[in-house]
Design brief:
Oligomer: single chain
Helix content: 25-40%
Structural class: alpha/beta
Distance between the termini: 32 Å
Shape: elongated
Number of helices: 7
Strand content: 15-25%
Bound molecules: adenine
């Protein structure tokens, strides 16, 4: 999968992409992530990328010209399945959306800033808008990192069997069961006996029950 990101603050995106599982996925060639600095596509002398909004009002707006310059430059080399704008008024990210996006070959992600981007970009160039929650961030970078992390870990070969994405919370609209590791007893707090029994069938049944109970209690909306 190829993921291109357009951002005004590339360094804000970099760290999460360069650690642990995401770093390994890129090194193995399972995902190719490229960051493009929006400012490089400004034709202004001072590399301006934002301006006051028509009609007045607080907050700067990212201008259409550098964004379209950048999108068109990238589109000349790559055919994108989706051009995604990270925005608090987009569709709310969930596991289904991450699954869906993980099946795409090439995606382009645009990170907004300030008051947002010129609406004409959204109307004519963006194919999908994604929000990571009902709150407003200072820019789309952190949101893009969340989206990329949740998508990349679903790509074949990125996780090994032990960390398989199939058993994640939300993957079947259920919360995961509790997990424990050694020691089996710590200051009188014991691991449920059944997990030490070695009986795979009983353990699987217990995990399913726990999943159902947890989902009922914590996220009844999922059921
Ligand atoms: N940009 C600013 N806030 C955001 C949010 N909640 N989700 C996605 N992009 C954003």
């Amino acid at each position: 999968m190829q993921i291109d990101i357009i951002s005004l603050l590339p360094s804000l995106l970099e760290s999460p992409l360069n650690h642990s599982i995401l770093k390994r996925a890129q090194n193995k060639g399972l995902v190719n992530i490229n960051i493009h600095n929006l400012r490089d596509y400004s034709t202004h002398k001072q590399k301006q990328v934002d301006d006051y909004q028509y009609g007045g009002g607080a907050g700067m707006v990212l201008m259409i010209e550098p964004i379209v310059n950048c999108i068109e430059y990238l589109k000349a080399a790559t055919k994108y399945d989706d051009i995604i704008y990270m925005s608090p008024d987009g569709e709310l990210l969930n596991q289904n959306i991450s699954n869906e996006i993980s099946l795409k070959k090439n995606i382009l992600i645009l990170c907004g800033h300030y008051k947002g981007i010129d609406e004409r970009v959204r109307e004519h160039f963006i194919t999908r808008e994604v929000s990571i929650g009902d709150y407003v961030l200072t820019g789309g970078e952190l949101a893009a990192n969340v989206l990329i992390d949740s998508v990349a870990r679903l790509l074949p070969g990125v996780l090994n069997n032990e960390t398989s994405a199939l058993e994640d919370s939300f993957q079947d609209n259920m919360i995961s069961p509790p997990v424990y590791t050694r020691p089996s007893e710590f200051r009188g707090m014991k691991v449920p006996e059944i997990l030490l029994s070695g009986n795979e069938k009983l353990i699987q049944n217990w995990r399913t029950e726990q999943s159902i109970e947890r989902t009922k209690k914590r996220r009844p909306d999922l059921l």
